[in-house]
Amino acid sequence: MLLTLTALLYLGLCLTQRINTGKQTLPKPIIWAKPSSRVPKGNPVSIWCQGPQSASEYQLYFEGSLFALERPKPRTLVSKVKFFIPQMTSNTAGRYYCFYQSGELQSEHSDLLVLVVTGMYDIPNLWVHPGPEVTLEEKVTFFCHLEAGTSKFFLLKEGEPNHVQQRHGNKKAEFPMGPVTGAHRGTYRCFGSYNDYVWSFPSEPVTLLIPGSEGNTSLAPAPTSLVYWEYSLSTKESGLQKDSAFWDHTTQNLIRIGLACIVLMVLVWLLAEDWLSRKREKEGTNRPASWECRRRWRLRCSLKEEQRDAISMGELKATPGPGAI
C-alpha cells in the first residue's frame, strides 16, 4: 500500500512538472524602432527587442521568416538587443516580430512592428477644404493628390505617429473629418503608395488652425469612415508584459491547484480503502475466533453437565434403599 501511494505521488509530481514545462508560455517581449517606424529610403534604422532578465537569446522574424539572432549583453540592468538595418529599402520594409529564449522555453512573439520606407514615389499635393483656418464644429476635408497615380493614400498628423488614416483612390483621396474640435489642430502630411509598406515622399505640410480652440483640448472622436493603423509601441515599455504574465501565471497556478486536488482526492480514497480493508480483515479474523470460543464454551458446559449427571447417578446408587439393613 505504501508503495502504491509513493508511486501515485511521484506520478502526480511528474505530470505537474510536464505540464509546467510543456504548457508554460513566457510573456511576450516588446519591439520598437528607432528613430521611427517610417524611414526614408537609404537611411539606417534599429529594431529593438526587450524581454526579462532571464532571456538568453532573441530572434527577429521578418514576414514570417527568421531574419537575425542576437544575444543580450551580460551584466546589464535591462535585457534587450538591437537589430541594425544600415539602409532602408523596399526589401526591408514590412512586418517584424521577435521572440526570446529562456532556458529551454520560448516566449510568445511580440506585437507586430511595421517598418515603412518613404521617398519611393513623387511628392503628392495636400490641401484642405474649406481652408486651413476653420471654426469650431465646422466640417473639413483633406485632399491628397499624386499625379503619377497610385491606389492608396495615407494622412498623418505630426506628433501622433501611432495613428495613420488610410483611404483608397485613383490619383486622389479625400479625408473628411469633423465637426472639428481643438484636438484637430495641428500639422498634417500625406503619402501615396501602391504598397502598404512602400510610400512616396511626404507632401508639403498643411497646418489646420481653429481660432478660439486653445482651451479645448478634448480628444476628437475617431471618424468612422477612416481606417486606422497602429504601428510603433511608444508607451508600452513601462507596462512590459503585465497582462500576459498575469494570465499565464494564473493559468499555471490553476493547473497546479487542480492537479494537487486530484492527487489529494486519490490519496484520501486510497487511505479510506486501506482502512476499510484492514477493518474487514480484522472483523474476518475475529469472527472465527469468536466462533471457536463459543464452541469451546459450549463443549465445556456440556462436559460439566455430564459430570454433574454422573455424580448425581453415583450418589443415587450409593444411597441404600428403604429395605436395606
From TrEMBL:
Transmembrane regions listed in the UniProt entry: 254-272
GO cellular component: plasma membrane
SMART domains the UniProt entry points to: IG (SM00409)
Keywords, comma-separated and alphabetical: Cell membrane, Disulfide bond, Glycoprotein, Immunoglobulin domain, Membrane, Receptor, Repeat, Signal, Transmembrane, Transmembrane helix
Membrane association type: Single-pass type I membrane protein
Gene3D superfamilies: Immunoglobulins
GO biological process per UniProt: immune response-regulating signaling pathway
Subcellular location, record wording: Cell membrane
InterPro entries: Ig-like_dom_sf, Ig-like_fold, Ig-like_Receptors_ImmuneReg, Ig_sub
Signal sequence, start to end: 1-16
Span of domain Immunoglobulin: 34-115, 129-211
Database matches in SUPFAM superfamilies: Immunoglobulin
Family named by the database record: Belongs to the natural cytotoxicity receptor (NCR) family.
PANTHER family in the cross-refs: MHC CLASS I NK CELL RECEPTOR, NATURAL CYTOTOXICITY TRIGGERING RECEPTOR 1
Protein name: Natural cytotoxicity triggering receptor 1
Organism encoding this protein: Cricetulus griseus (Chinese hamster)
